[in-house]
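Go through this pair.

…
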Amino acid sequence: MKVGILGGGRWGQALARLVIAAGGDPLIAYEGKRPPHVLPSTNDPALVPPTCDLLLVATSAAEVRRAICDARPGPGNRVVVAGRGIEPASGRWLTEVVTEASPVLRVGALAGAAPVEEILNGGLCAGVVASPFEEVRVLTTAALHSSRYRVYESADLAGVQLAGALVPVLQATLGMALSLQGAGVGLHALVLTRGLEEATRLARAFGADPLTLLGLAGVGDLVATATTSAAWAAGRDLAAGKRDQGPASLARAVHGLALSKGVELPLIAGLVAVYDGQSPLDVLASLMSRKAQPEHR
C-alpha cells in the first residue's frame, strides 16, 4: 500500500516507519530543502495525493489547512488526521478543516498512546483510528498495524477528536497542579479523576461515547505522555509564574466549546483563568471551596 504523509517532522517520520513495519510504502511531503533522513519524500505536496491509497496528516493543528491546500487532495482520496487539537484560528475540528479546505469526502482521525521517540527507537505502541467510513478504518489499519504498532478501530470520530483536544489541556492542568507547593498524590488523583469527569460530560454533549475518553485516545495518551509532553512542562511553568502560551489557545477553545453546549468545566476554566492572570493558588483555593455535589452528573 502506498501511504502519503503530509508533514516531514518527527511525527511524520515516525508514521513513515510504522508504514514500513506494516509492509507499506510511505511517501512524505516535506517543507524546505532538507528531506527526512533516508525516508522516501518529496518537497512537492501536490505529487502525493494522486499516487497514494491513503493520506495521513502529520502536522500541528495550526498547519493542517495549509498542508491540505498545498497537497490539493481530491474527492477520491481518503485522509486521516494524525494530530491533536482544534484549529486555533477557527475552533473547528481538524477533520472539518480537511473537508472545508478540499473536496475530500472520506476522513478520519488517528490518536493514541504512541510517543514519537519510542516509535523512532523501535518501541511498542498502539493507536485508534476513528471514522464514520469503514473503508477509511480498514485502510488505516492495513497501513499501520504490525507487531510494533497495534491499531484499533472506532466509529466515534467526535470522541477521538475531542480526546485529542482535551489531553494537552489536562496535561497542562496536571503539570500546574502538581508543581504547586504542598501538592501530593491526593491532589494528583483529584485533578486527574475530575478532569476525566469533565471530559466525559463534554463528550456526552457532543454525542460522543464517554468510553472513548477511557481508551487509547484519552487515558492511554494521557498516561503515555503524562510528564514528558510540552503541555505538562507549560503547566509546570504556570505554577512558577511563567505564563508562556503553551496550550493556552487550545484550553480557551475547549472552554468555548463547553460554554456553547452549556457544560461546566471547572478545572479547565481554572486553567484559562490562570492564563488570564489569576494566581494558581487562588484558582486552586476557589476550586476546593466549591459546594459539595454528586461525583457523577
Remarks:
- The chain has two domains: 2-155, 158-288.
- Residues 157-177 form the longest helix (21 residues).
- The two ends are 46 Å apart (CA to CA).
